[in-house]
Specification:
7 helices, NADH Oxidase, alpha+beta, binds flavin mononucleotide, five-stranded antiparallel beta sheet, 5 strands
């Protein structure tokens, strides 16, 4: 006989109750976020961009190395360049594009250095995306740069004066949404979350 567990962490007598009363808005932001690829023309104010960038700055990183750097692009000519040579033309129509860089580390942390300088900026990028959602902007990750021709990457790096020891990890397109896509499906929790060992469903005790 299996028992289905109902998980509820916030009970009235929870010792955590009242410590940080952002639970509902936080989960709403997570739930509302979509990848948005159509944008209304809009000049995102610097104040909003700063909030978004500050959210990224507060991300955790390996040994606090903060190997990320961000370049905010609004220049239409540069946006058009970033949208080449790709079928993803929507990039050029974003209100702003944040180029997320990873600085190659030489003495940061044990283990796979090459991994940290990508992994940490990726975490920061998700902070960017969630902060943008919280402010009402749409966003889209664009991580296909890796697969673009090296000469194109070099052209972008030269144009943006990105130093040799920095890699373009991801672009985040931002803008006022001009579409409201339905949520894309996700695998059910029972398929991806396990209790104590791989394959043992979270739902079964
Ligand atoms: C690492 C990463 C790379 C992505 N790269 C692209 C991309 O190059 N182009 C694109 O249109 N969407 C890209 N996406 C967005 C995904 O397609 C999208 O998150 C996924 O389909 C789920 O849809 P949702 O974000 O609306 O929930 C990327 C997302 C992630 C996390």
């Amino acid at each position: 006989m299996t028992k289905v567990v109902e998980t509820q962490s916030k009970t009235p007598d929870s010792p955590k109750k009242g410590l940080l009363d952002v639970t509902e808005p936080f989960f709403k932001v997570i739930q509302k976020r979509r990848s948005i690829r159509r944008y209304k023309p809009y000049d995102i104010p610097d104040a909003d961009l700063e909030k978004i960038l500050n959210a990224a700055r507060l991300a955790p990183s390996t040994n606090n190395s903060q190997s990320w750097r961000f370049i905010v692009i609004k220049d239409p000519e540069v946006k058009a360049l970033l949208g080449q040579p790709s079928p993803q033309r929507f990039i050029a129509n974003a209100n702003a594009i944040i180029v997320v860089l990873g600085m190659q580390q030489t003495s940061c942390c044990p283990g796979n250095q090459a991994r940290w300088h990508v992994q940490d900026p990726m975490i920061a990028a998700e902070h960017l995306v969630l902060a943008a959602t919280a402010l009402g902007y749409g966003s889209c990750w664009i991580a296909t740069y890796e697969s673009r021709p090296p000469e194109f990457i070099q052209e972008v790096k030269t144009k943006l004066e990105i130093p040799e020891n920095a890699d373009i990890v991801v672009l985040v397109a931002l803008g006022v949404p001009d579409e409201a896509p339905a949520p894309r499906s996700r695998k059910p929790l029972g398929e991806i979350a396990f209790r104590e060992k791989f394959g043992q469903s979270w739902y079964v005790l």
